[in-house]
Amino acid sequence: MSVPAARTAVREDATPGADATPGAEARAEAGTAAEAGTEAGAGTAPASGTAPGFGTAPEPGRESAATPGHAPPVPRFLARAALVTASLSVAGALLGLVRDQSLARLFGAGRDTDAFLVAWTVPEFAATLLIEEGLAFALIPAFSAALARRAQGAPGDPVRSLVAGSLPRLSLAFTAVGALLAAAAPQLVGVLAPGLPDPALAVDCTRLTATCVLSFGLAGYCSAALRAHGRYLAPAAIYVVYNIAVITAMFALGGHWGVRSAAFGVAAGGCLMVLVQLPDLVRRLRDRTVTRAASGGAAAARPVDVTLMATVLLFGLCRQSQVLIERFLASQLPAGAISHLNYAQKVAQIPMMLSMMLCTVTFPVVARALADGDTERARTRVERDLAVAAALVLLGTAAVLACAPQIIQLLFQRGAFTAADTAATAGVMRVYALGLLGQTLTGVLVRSYFSAGRATWYPLAAMAAGIVVTSWTGACAIGSWGVLGIAAANAAGITVTAVLLLSGPASRSVPVRARGVLRELSRPLRAAAAATAAGAFAASLPAAPLAGLLAGGTTVTVVFVLLGHALGAQGCTFAIRFVRTLAGRLAHAVLR
């Protein structure tokens, strides 16, 4: 799942360095991120009752230092960026649901899907490490710093120098790792799922999905570069084309290749993720205006900091290893356990993905603010992101806990997916949802460590502690609780990591004020608890699953927003203000 760097914040096709003095536009951009959230429905001024100093807007004098006569429409630009990212992310998530529904309908929840989901581990890891977190944590600050040096008149073009020094080496590394995974597929399957009934099928699927290491790596590189340049359309569309490729492959080839067709779709989708971004990136790098503006000769190639790359990739690898632990333990349970975990996670994670959209858009703002030395503005942005993301994910968590059986029945109970599968998956999803707040807080907080583009080992240590908790709890609970114990272990481990990241050292890149964050989190937490109870009661009244989901979901939303607003939760206040603004605009459009 970025906000433009200072030199490209004017419009989608703005030329870097065209409209403002160095550093001034960066301050204007960072200062207006909150206002952009207002227009996009993502954030506004803090609610009354907010802890002093937490999530408050900067002083008026710090909002913008743009050159007089050159006041770019940054809030509107960021609002459009948030809208584009949110719309395409939702579309990608919905297509992901269709993909999982298709997998369940065509192949059920048994030996074949278990084999494919073991192979699915490769694209899951690749997406986290190379697109969503790991590589982005290193590349977005690097491109932001290169854009800042370009704005300051550095010789040559620092952005092209960064590409020349990093892309060839990373491409070679991606190719080598993908080839190694394909060659070692039998051993990999044996380690990931030693109790798998049909390892040969999993090996075939793994060799197909191994190709995504290269394609996802290149897609992640393009995505980081484009977002740092203020380009959002192509990066936000990558999961749309990816899921379309997987769905198409399953229906077109499933009759002949079985579940291997899904693995082929992963390989084809990875290629499309690169192709949809490549033309825009090439245009950015060949921008003639940038060439004319660059002073001096060509700058030396600048590779990405190896230590920084190691820390962010190891953190992402450690975080994603939760999936390995789950599937290793679930492979010892009856057939279908891995599939139940997978379907439950895919649905339960939708609230988390939606809550992380704002952070995706604002991460380069934080990175650029730190590159310009404005730590206070970066901290304000991160704390506001924490408040909004926590409120959104807690609303989603309450809905999942209240309406899990209805959600799973409506989404999956057809074809080879039986009522017993629905009951098992709904139970797992409810337990897994208890860790969604920890997942979201971890995703937001880790950015406060890596935004400055400096290597730090603390996030890896915090994630490793969470993995220890997950492993130990899962091993102890699986005997008594089965697959529910695995889901509970996941929730416990990621919550421990979130707590450690929040209480981390003050020397981090963005020193978040933990007490203020906890004070703010207590408000939507109380609202979510009440909304869950009310929603579960409402969902149990109708017999039809659709009616139950509508009743439960509506009750959860109303109770959570109203109670959260009464308690002073920022996210609920933002939601009410956005609805009022949207209703007013619609009324004006209709009645004028």
Uncertain residue segments = 1-75, 294-299
Report the average pLDDT across residues: 78
Helix-strand pattern? HHHHHHHHHHHHHHHHHHHHHHHHHHH
Category by helix and strand content: mainly alpha
Q: Main β-sheet: number of strands, strand sense, barrel status?
A: none
* Intertermini distance: 38 Å
Rg result: 23 Å
What is the beta-strand fraction? Answer: under 5%
Task: Please provide the count of β strands.
Answer: 0
Overall geometry comes to globular
Number of helices: 27
- Helix content bin: over 70%
Describe the overall structure.
By secondary structure, this protein is an all-alpha fold. Helix content is 76%, strand content 0%. It has 27 helices and no strands. The longest helix is centred in the middle third of the chain and has 38 residues, at 375-412. The chain is globular. Mean pLDDT is 78; it is low at 1-75 and 294-299.
What labels describe this entry?
592 residues; mainly alpha; 76% helix; disordered N terminus
Give the helices and strands, then pairings.
Blueprint lengths: L23 H8 L1 H8 L33 H34 L3 H9 L1 H12 L1 H18 L6 H26 L1 H8 L6 H11 L2 H17 L4 H4 L1 H20 L2 H16 L2 H8 L2 H6 L12 H25 L6 H19 L1 H15 L3 H38 L6 H15 L2 H10 L1 H4 L7 H24 L1 H20 L11 H27 L4 H23 L2 H22 L1
Helix pairs in contact: 1-18, 2-3, 3-12, 3-17, 3-18, 4-9, 4-17, 5-10, 5-16, 6-10, 6-16, 6-18, 7-10, 8-9, 9-13, 10-13, 10-14, 12-13, 16-23, 16-24, 17-19, 17-20, 17-21, 18-19, 19-20, 19-21, 19-25, 19-26, 19-27, 20-24, 21-24, 23-24, 25-26, 26-27
